[in-house]
Amino acid sequence: MSVDVAALRAEIKARQAVLQARYLEDNDANALLRQRSADVDDILCRLWNAFDFPASAALAAVGGYGRGELYPSSDIDLLILLPQAASAATEAKLERLVGHFWDIGLEIGHSVRTIPECLNEAAGDITVQTALLEARLLTGSEKLFTTFRKRLFGNLDPLGFFEAKRLEQQDRYLRYNETPYSLEPNIKESPGGLRDLQVIFWIAKAAGYGDTWDELGVDGVMSEEGVSLGKRFEEFLRHLRIRLHFLAGRREDRLLFDYQANLAGRYGYADNESKRASEQLMQAYYRNAKGLTLLNTIVLQNMGAALAPENLQRPQDFDEHFQIVGNLLDVRDESLFEREPGLVLDAFLIMQENSELQGMTAPTLRSLWLARERIDDAFRADPANRAMFLKLLQSERGIVHEFRRMNQLDILGAYLPNFGRIVGQMQHDLFHVYTVDQHILQVLRNLRRFTMSEFAHEYPLCSRIINEFERPWLLYIAALFHDIAKGRGGDHSVKGMTDAREFCENHGLTAEDTELVVWLVRQHLVMSQIAQKEDLSNPEVIDKFAGLVGDVRHLQALYLLTHADIRGTSPKVWNQWKGKLLADLYLQTQHFLAQDEAPVAHGIIAERQAEAMRLLRFFALSDTVHERLWKQLDTVYFLRHSAEEIAWHTRSLHYRIYNNQPVVRARMWQDGVGLQVMVYTQDQHDLFARLVGFFARAGYSIVDAKIHTTAHGYALDSFILLDVEKRDHNREMLAYIEHELEERLQHQLPPEVPSAGRLSRQVKHFPIKPEVSIRGDEKGTHFVLSLTAADRPGLLYTVARTLAEHGAELHTAKIATLGERAEDVFLISGGDLRDTNQRIRLETDLIERMKV
């Protein structure tokens, strides 16, 4: 057993040099990838054979190497497959083999497994399962490898694999802020990168749809146009990644500024009067990424529909123009928008107003994309379309999702031509990491998060302010226009102000609202400059800034926009110090302005607190009775609870804030239709599961719940309960619930497993596909779990037990039941949720257990 390591190392370098020279001459990306794989195959097989391994073992390529796509500096993933656990002699050989892998200069990732071990790992990790799907035998026992492949695919559930890969992609998109428009994108992992193409083929392979673009076209998964586009997108990215690897001399998948100009030159781009060569290259990349994300969406929807159970594919009527397929909006006629272009914006409003809709079908997306050409001057001048666009900004939900979707389909840029000019536009400074259009959408997203109670823990001051702010949609207009004039030369704030004024006047905003939007666009940089560059302890600085803003409303608006704007430049730009400076300037200026104004309670929170105090006076309680409890309650609590609920909680708890005994109070709800229960206790293990299990066993369905944890570690939870069997004994149950639940909580009895209830006939005939999303907050400490499913007895218990099994801790929850549909949001932490695979396992388990 003799291996000339130095000779093999030299041979690898020589072959790589030949490949590079040949590629630069013939520019054939596919040939390079195939030959690179073949060269490595040859080296590894010779090395394996030199060690005289048992004939019953096998060496296989997996991952990208397994499918024969080996880029110049990519990792080489191997599976060493054994018929049984390795003997001591075989282990010794394997150690020397792995050492030689590195000695000869190949970056190899390897695993040594038996078939049962492979199957076990694949069952617990979607990443491992995906890599093994692409396994290719290099040398060794063909019988063992064939058995492995047969058992792997025999254990494969195509629909389950599809759902897991969809969740994995969703998580990957979140890591890259759901945008392909980073100024230094990862051309492999970012949305619109090679991974989006690979996901298509992984799912296709698992479902038996084929391994090539042409096979997908034959199988009907893709149209002829889609196949052509897929090939083009793939070709562009393959060339770019190959050239990037050669240029960097190592594995590098980020299009860093350091490489962009050099790559642009190699693609033949040259600087001109309007754009640098690197900008031209990046705009070509963004166009490719934009088309690829849309193709990925359409193809995955096609495959998901084909794999879904038949009852989820049955269309449900919505209106004369649209229907619902699964949980997707579908056009009845693909020529709809050509005939009636005004319905283009209506489609996005429908998405906002119907929370059960999780997306649009492929025909709908395709029709909308084609209809972008119908958005002309006449369309933009139509009062109905202008009113519809404002409604999109004024919606209570879905604003960011739909504006991102409109941008992806080129509809936003068609409606706002000046916005269209900044799509894919680079920003050359030290702060921004997104193109101009994506930065604007990030600012819009940040403003929207201030309004959402599930994110109120991130920036409580901003959440409190925006919920006191009348017509917050005016801030969204300011966000759309604050950077819209970048790249036109001169002061973009001044030019953007002109665009904003024209928009406001055309769309019928009042003079007061127009003035605020225009002022915000003009002044959107001022507050950050003062906060970071001037001495805030100097009264003259505060006096001057107060004179600029004029009143509290302008101050609030500018603070919120500035906060969202700074955070929208880059995840790395914002820090606690900048946040403190900005908050200090806001609070000092607010105090300065308040000297000339009579203090008036305003805003949702202030109004609820004032009304709660008024209600408490009816019970002859003092004006200070609330203070001890309210000190332990945060913005989220006051946003979620009504004034009457706040007063009820305060009346029940003000004298036992630090009570060691659980407190349970129950009362009739809405003229005896149901019950409302309040639970107050020191937090304890599995508390949520205990509560929902108890209510289910008592025969009640939870139609609304607000789960809250106080600042001093107590659970303060409220539930609205309906009797599942519609028995007429709610009033008699009040004392029972208070006594029995207090006893169970006091003795920390284990959760009660509820009996399985019956599904409604409507859910049986029109099933609701469960959807789960886990998104990390900006501080990286908590995660927002959103889920949608068909409501049924025991559903919340199932969720609670699943969270407990995964070690996730529950902090707050908002439970809502809309007819037969449950829409719940949980703020959770722990349970290794920072690990992508752990999150996907939790999402997968929840989806599987919520299926009906």
UniProtKB/TrEMBL annotation:
Its EC number is 2.7.7.59, 3.1.4.-. It comes from the Bacteria. Uridylyltransferase (UTase) activity is inhibited by glutamine, while glutamine activates uridylyl-removing (UR) activity. The keyword Ion transport does not apply. Its cofactor is Mg(2+). Residues 436-558 form the HD domain. Residues 676-756, 784-852 form the ACT domain. It catalyses: [protein-PII]-L-tyrosine + UTP = [protein-PII]-uridylyl-L-tyrosine + diphosphate; [protein-PII]-uridylyl-L-tyrosine + H2O = [protein-PII]-L-tyrosine + UMP + H(+). It holds the Pfam family HD. Keywords: Hydrolase, Magnesium, Multifunctional enzyme, Nucleotidyltransferase, Repeat, Transferase. Residues 1-317 are annotated as: Uridylyltransferase. GO terms for molecular function: [protein-PII] uridylyltransferase activity; phosphoric diester hydrolase activity. GO terms for biological process: regulation of nitrogen utilization. Has four distinct domains: an N-terminal nucleotidyltransferase (NT) domain responsible for UTase activity, a central HD domain that encodes UR activity, and two C-terminal ACT domains that seem to have a role in glutamine sensing. Belongs to the GlnD family. Modifies, by uridylylation and deuridylylation, the PII regulatory proteins (GlnB and homologs), in response to the nitrogen status of the cell that GlnD senses through the glutamine level. Under low glutamine levels, catalyzes the conversion of the PII proteins and UTP to PII-UMP and PPi, while under higher glutamine levels, GlnD hydrolyzes PII-UMP to PII and UMP (deuridylylation). Thus, controls uridylylation state and activity of the PII proteins, and plays an important role in the regulation of nitrogen metabolism. This is Bifunctional uridylyltransferase/uridylyl-removing enzyme. It comes from Azonexus hydrophilus.
